[in-house]
Amino acid sequence: MSGLQTQDFPSALRLTKAQKDQGSTESETKPKKKICCACPDTKKLRDECIVEHGESACEKWIEAHRLCLRAEGFNV
After folding, report:
1. How far apart are CA 4 and CA 59, in angstroms?
2. For residue 42, what is the enclosing H or E element?
């Protein structure tokens, strides 16, 4: 009976490794922060620009913030 357990162990090990590999892929694509806390520098510049000049004059900062958020894993 101990021979049977030895044969099952490697397949269980492979399954566990495969599950860990899938989990790491999912965690890499999911954001690690809340969207409100991500990219504080570009968010501040974007917000200040919009307050002072209006949204239409701040496309450069808005796009910079979007690119930063995308780099953090958000789909915006």
Report:
1. 65
2. helix 40-53
